[in-house]
Amino acid sequence: MPNSSSMPQFLLLAFADRRELQLLHFWLFLAISLAALLANGLILSAVACDHHLHTPRYFFLLNLSLTDLGCICTTVPKAMHNSLWDTTTISYTGCVAQVFLLFFFMSAEFSLLTIMCYDRYVAICKPLHYGTLLGSRACAHMAAAAWATGFLDALLHTASTFSLPLCQGNALGQFFCEIPHILKLSCSHSGYLREIRLLMVIACLVFSCFIFIVFSYVQIFRAVLRIPSQQGRHKAFSTCLPHLAVVSLFVSSVLLSHLKPPSISSPSLDLALSVLYSVVPPALNPLIYSLRNQEVKDAIRKMMTGCFSGAIMCQVSDV
Fold first, then answer.
1. What is the pLDDT of residue 148?
2. How many angstroms separate the first and last alpha carbons of the chain?
3. CB-CB contact of 48 with 62 (8 Å)
4. CA torsion sign, 227 to 231 to 237 to 240?
5. Beta carbons within 8 Å of 74's beta carbon, 6+ residues apart
6. Which of 65-74, 125-134, 144-153, 225-234 has the lowest mean pLDDT?
7. Distance from C-alpha of 293 to C-alpha of 12, rounded to nearest angstrom
8. Which residues contact 252 (CB under 8 A, 6 or more apart)?
9. In DSSP terms, which residues pair with 11 in a beta bridge?
10. Using alpha carbons only, what angle is made at residue 241 by residues 239 and 243, rounded to the nearest 5 degrees?
């Protein structure tokens, strides 16, 4: 019975067999990853450089952008490499790193989305207590708790998964290393059940956070509808709706990918759904937050104008 650590490499699922489609996938993923890097990088720079954005809301947005960058940098580069060089292999160490990092960033992201929901709940339902409940120290502690939760979850699941003996080959039905597909290669029934129990615990925690988000938004919408002015209601909705859209995109894509009926499962559908939850949200999240947020757009415009002016001044001084 071979142990997982004796397996030199895994085989990932290829996006296409034809060379033209492989190159098309490479260029498509390159465009998506560059757009995600640029958009999230602009948000990080704007929040860090503009003192008007040094508030709890944008502090958590900065952390969310970091998790989005981490998610897309964990899976996309290897997929692009395999498409460009017409290969499907990933080393054992690389697979371990992918599982750990993806679980780490996605777990931290959902924790941050839950915290951001709490931020909006306090801002709208308890505005007089906002400074007390969401001071700088409290925000730092909550962000640290989100990252620590992601790290602990990733460490437990990675250690549990790769301690299993694998005897069902080395082919993964996914374009990146993912725990459910690795578990299919296991020949240890007790170890498989142990990891399933761990996943069920995480699922219960995620469901609890989801219930908290739903309950918070029920309270938020009730409070918003009591605001007398239409302008005040519009401002409150514009604050909440981007976050709600991001949560909905994240949760629905993950649930659709992992809880779909087996009768409709197919390699091409599984591949499309895995892209939907691992690649699309990190690329769309900064657009959802920035396109409807005038403060972020103003900060980005101010930052880019300052950089452009500085470059012109440098050129003039050199002349």
1. 95
2. 72
3. yes
4. negative
5. 98, 101, 102, 105, 176
6. 225-234
7. 39
8. none
9. 89, 171
10. 85
**Residue 86 region by backbone torsions, left for phi larger than 0, else alpha for psi between -120 and 50, else beta:** left
pLDDT at 261: 64
Q: How confident is the model at residue 187 (pLDDT cuts 50, 70, 90)?
A: confident
Opening angle at CA 188, ends 187 and 194, nearest 5: 135
Q: Collect all residues with Cβ–Cβ distance below 8 Å to 248 and sequence separation of at least 6.
A: none
* Percent of the chain clearing pLDDT 70 (strictly above): 87
What is the 3-class SS of 197-229, one letter each residue? HHHHHHHHHHHHHHHHHHHHHHHHHHHHHCCCC
pLDDT digits (tens, 9 = 90+) for 263-292: 666 667 777 777 877 888 888 888 777 766
- Measured CA distances, 243 to 119, 236, 292 (Å): 11, 12, 11
In 3-state terms the chain splits into helix, strand, coil percentages (rounded to 5) of: 80, 5, 15
**Tokens encoding 98:** 């992918």
Residue pointed to by tokens 């995109």: 249
